[in-house]
Amino acid sequence: MATSESQPRREPTLGSATEEAPEGIDPRSRGGSSRTRWIVLLFLIVLLGGGAGLYYWLKRERPAPQPPPVAEAEPSPPAVAEPTIKHPIEEAAQPAQEEKPLPELDQSDTATRERLAALVGTQPMDQLFYSEALIRNIVVTIDNLPRNKFARRLAPVKPAAGPFMVESAGDGVVIDSNNAKRYAAHVRLAELIDAKKLVGLYVAYYPLFQQAYVELGYPNGYFNDRLVEVIDHLLAAPEVQEPLRLVQPKVLYEYADPRLETLSAGQKILVRVGSENAAKLKAKLREIRGEVTGQMPPQ
Fold first, then answer.
1. 11 to each of 18, 37, 44, how far by Cα in Å?
2. CA pair distance 66, 54, nearest whole angstrom
3. What are 129's strand-pairing partners?
4. Domain count of the chain?
């Protein structure tokens, strides 16, 4: 067992003739000095060996100091995803400051009708629009246009006058070229209306539109996003070659082209009104979209 970490030294051989007496020790007591040195040496060995053993025993028995426990952080509650708004209404054309507070949605028909009449005229307003539940019916109709069907009884705009017109063509029927004239009043109104003022009215009354949309079953929805989505959907309606062939499997006419028959209710309207009317309506839709979003869609 090593007794020291210093370099080992060579001890003189005890009783050697060449051994020098240690300083301060009487040479005449060499024998006694030798025994004493042995005792001292044995004592050092025991002391050092025992000390080393004690050190290792203490080190083995005494547990190493442990770092203080780290408190575990409580898991954070899952974040509730907020609805993503793509087209904030604040970016739309801002109307003039409203002089009167907005009416309640259930009492908004009179004020909405008056504001619309100021834009389109009293006579067209009476001829083309229903007067009840205007905002709610506008919201539900816009929401339904990309679907297969929409509730005509909830439409805010009155249907075109007269019956749907068809004519014979060979062994089948097609949409009559005069059918497009039935929509002339609606298309003319759309062309004449000022898109900027119309959107200004929409922005001023937007809280009521949003309320109607939430009541429709979209608690986390944002109606302005839906409006832009529907406009883009209508703008994507295909341009068709006329006349359009029809079939009549039961009571109602259907498009002979299966591709057209699978279009949404809104896109079918744009096909049915005729290509010239559809082009005018799409142009107005682009203007409205530009005012609502600040960006014009591609042609």
1. 13, 11, 14
2. 22
3. 157
4. 1
Cis check for the bond before 22: say yes or no (omega within 30 of 0): no
pLDDT of residue 96 exceeding 80, the answer is no
Task: Say which residue, 225 or 58, is predicted with more confidence.
Answer: 225
Place 229 in a pLDDT band, splitting at 50, 70 and 90: very high
Is 299 a domain residue? no
Domain that holds residue 167: 89-293
Give the strands of the sheet with 166-169, arranged side by side. Answer: 166-169, 172-175, 245-247, 254-255
pLDDT confidence bin for 92, thresholds 50/70/90: confident
Check: pTM over 0.85? Answer yes or no.
no
What separation, in Å, do the N-terminal and C-terminal C-alpha atoms of the chain show? 96
1 in a structural domain = no
Which residue, among 172, 131, 147, 136, has the nearest Cα to 269 in the 3D structure? 147
**Rounded CA gap, 148 and 64, in Å?**
75
Please, where are the H alpha helices in the chain? 30-61, 109-120, 122-128, 134-144, 184-192, 195-204, 206-215, 223-235, 258-261, 265-272, 275-293
Mutual orientation of helices 223-235 and 134-144 as an angle, nearest 10°? 50
The 3-state secondary structure of 59-106 reads HHHCCCCCCCCCCCCCCCCCCCCCCCCCCCHHHCCCCCCCCCCCCCHH
Mean pLDDT of 206-220: 97
Q: What is the per-residue pLDDT for 91?
A: 72
Query: Is 39 among the domain residues?
Result: no
